[in-house]
Amino acid sequence: MSGAGKVVAVTGASGYIASWIVKLLLQRGYTVKASVREPNESRKTAHLTSLDGAKERLQLFKANLLEEGSFESCLEGCEGVFHTASPFYHDIKDPQAELLDPAIKGTLNVLNSVAKFPSIKRVVLTSSIAAVAYNGKPRTPDVVVDETWFSDPNLCKESQLWYVLSKTLAEDAAWKFVHEKGIDMVTINPAMVIGPLLQPTLNTSAAAILNLINGAQAYNNLSLGWVNVKDVANAHIQAFEIPSANGRYCLVERVAHYAEVVKMLRELYPSLELPEKCADEKPLVPIYQVSKEKAKSLGIEYIPLETSLKETVESLKEKKFVSF
Ligand SMILES: NC(=O)c1ccc[n+]([C@@H]2O[C@H](COP(=O)([O-])OP(=O)(O)OC[C@H]3O[C@@H](n4cnc5c(N)ncnc54)[C@H](OP(=O)(O)O)[C@@H]3O)[C@@H](O)[C@H]2O)c1
């Protein structure tokens, strides 16, 4: 019980990744102060308050990234902060208001409050591979992406990759802030996160798998890194607990093209109707590698993609997003 007697905060606790962070923290004996936007909406909180240990050691706080100071009561008295809240969706009309402001201003809002509480020893920020890999360098099978890569905001803007831009600018703003204030911060930079859902709502990365098994005619011509949500949550906690943890940690079990993901799903579920063709006629976007060296130092032994896919599909079935 590495967390016994310790108090930590998790922002955006009702979300997909944060819910797993809360679950594992409670399992390890931590007392968790969890921020949610709507603490009185049971659809957003029931899956948290029913976790083992929640009755004794979970407290909910209302906070919004866009309301200055709203995280203070949540962060007060904590030793560690897991800042995971940030919008992740693609279907947006106003990138500034819907993605960029909550990601960037929201992160600075949380960090401003962190700076007020000397009890906070470390912040673990949920960044993304989005803040790492989009810098215009070619990504081919012999290229190894690692933590020294930083996405290029101009390129993100030109390509209108608004979510990627939001994560890139938020991480950059966070590093500048913590360097100036002398705050200890570690970032976790996962790729597409899949695996079982704890929350009752559908999150964006699980939706990518649901789309494939729910009648899509074609798969995207895209190669992505994939990682299991349990490994991602565990990495966050390891990054808090291991004193020497520092800087950024890319988390990718493997990079696979959607064509390969569909092939794996077909092997797992032979009777399922899956897309037969690629969305365009261009050559398949090549895979690349992502370094596992730093993640290894957190003790992460990745759950294989096949298992993650199976767990995602089973969870989507259990939560009735799909039936077969
Ligand atoms: N899933 C992935 O593949 C992936 C990969 C890399 C990084 N990430 C990062 O992981 C984090 C969590 O993402 P997720 O996949 O778990 O998505 P999610 O389930 O949609 O969770 C996002 C969380 O952010 C909260 N949030 C959004 N806007 C907010 C605001 N204005 N004020 C307060 N909270 C707000 C949401 O709160 P509500 O519940 O109230 O809406 C929700 O709890 C994000 O930082 C994301 O960028 C995700």
Give structural notes:
With 324 residues, this protein is α/β, with parallel strands linked by helices. It has a domain at 7-194 and 228-252 and 292-300: Rossmann fold (3-Layer(aba) Sandwich). Helix content is 39%, strand content 18%. The chain is built from twelve helices and 14 strands. It has helices spanning 16-27, 42-49, 54-57, 72-75, 95-114, 153-158, 162-181, 204-213, 229-241, 258-268, 293-296, 305-318; strands at 7-11, 31-36, 58-62, 80-83, 122-126, 144-145, 185-190, 192-194, 218-219, 223-228, 247-251, 254-257, 277-278, 289-290. The chain has a seven-stranded parallel sheet with strand order 3-2-1-4-5-7-11, sandwiched between helices. Helix 1 links the parallel strand 1 (7-11) and strand 2. Helix 1 crosses helix 9, helix 5 packs parallel to helix 7 and helix 8 crosses helix 12 (305-318). The termini are far apart. The model has no long low-confidence stretch (mean pLDDT 97). The structure holds NADP nicotinamide-adenine-dinucleotide phosphate.
Q: Which features characterize this protein?
A:
single chain; alpha/beta; Rossmann fold; 7-stranded parallel sheet; 3-stranded mixed sheet; binds NADP nicotinamide-adenine-dinucleotide phosphate; Epimerase_deHydtase; oxidoreductase activity, acting on the CH-OH group of donors, NAD or NADP as acceptor; NAD(P)_dehydrat-like; NAD-dependent epimerase/dehydratase domain-containing protein
